Amino acid sequence: MPVKPIRDLFSGHSDVYEKYRPDYPPSLYQAILQYTPGRGKYWDCATGNGQVARVLAGHFKQACATDISKNQLEKAPVMANLTYKVSRAEDTGFEANTFDLITVAQAIHWFDITAFLEEARRVGRAGCTLAVWGYGQVRFGGVLDDHIEHFYREVVGPYWAGERAHIDSAYADIDFNLNEEADLGNHRIEKAMNLESLRGYLTSWSSVQNYIRKQRHNPVDPFIETLGRHWKGEAEKIAVFPLFGKMGRLGK
């Protein structure tokens, strides 16, 4: 049984999360599907607002998406072959040998990772694909990146949970113990952002929400004012988020 306490850091700002979090590129989904021949049943774990599940569900006969946050699931899209369930990652209640594909996007660092991998092996069919990925710090280039890095490290850095270190290491410190590994590919998110959408994205950070709870004000507001002095030229700029992750076959 999992021993790590549940960490729900996103229910309280599910509206902000849904509106401002970036979407993943089609090339990422194509790489996953090309590696996954079985198209019976699919599980998206820690689905949030169904961002990934709504894309991949259409390629399978049936799909399930789980999250610990009821508020997040209420934002998820309705699809005929997609069912949602409030459940922690490590103890789902799914039948054994069920899924051809299991995905986890920007979330495995919050899990009891050992317990989740055991559960994934239990509910995955022989040859089941596990695809796990995340994304790194937003980049615009030049002096803007220096200011964002300072905000990330120095202003809200002390308010990140310890699990954030897995993101900083690009999951290199996690042993997925895959039976076979495949190349997930070199992908990145590109998203047009103005200062207001950047404000919304930064406010969705769990560290910012933790800062607000403890300090009673939003540190993003003065930061955006400072950043605006360097936001020269066009109203929108292309934000780049580098993707990283692992994909392979689960051993039984």
What report would you give on this structure?
- The two termini are 18 Å apart.
- Strands 1, 2, 3, 4, 5, 6, 7 and 8 form an eight-stranded mixed β-sheet that branches.
- By secondary structure, the chain is α/β, with parallel strands linked by helices.
- Mean pLDDT is 92; it is low at 9-14.
- It is built from ten helices and eight strands.
- The protein has a single domain (11-249), classed as Vaccinia Virus protein VP39 (Rossmann fold).
- Strand 4, helix 5 and strand 5 form a beta-alpha-beta unit.
- Helix 1 (14-20) crosses helix 8 and helix 8 (195-203) runs antiparallel to helix 10.
Identify the notable features of this structure and list them briefly.
single chain; 252 residues; alpha/beta; Rossmann fold; eight-stranded mixed sheet; 10 helices; 8 strands; globular
Please report the distance between the alpha carbons of the first and last residues: 18 Å
Q: Strand tally, please? A: 8
CATH domain class: Alpha Beta
Spell out the helices and strands N to C.
Answer: HHEHEHEEHEHHEEHHHE
Q: What name does the CATH topology carry?
A: Rossmann fold
> What global shape is seen?
globular
Question: Which class best fits the helix and strand makeup?
Answer: alpha/beta
At CATH level 2, the architecture is 3-Layer(aba) Sandwich
Overall radius of gyration: 18 Å
Mean pLDDT across residues? 92
Low-confidence stretches: 9-14
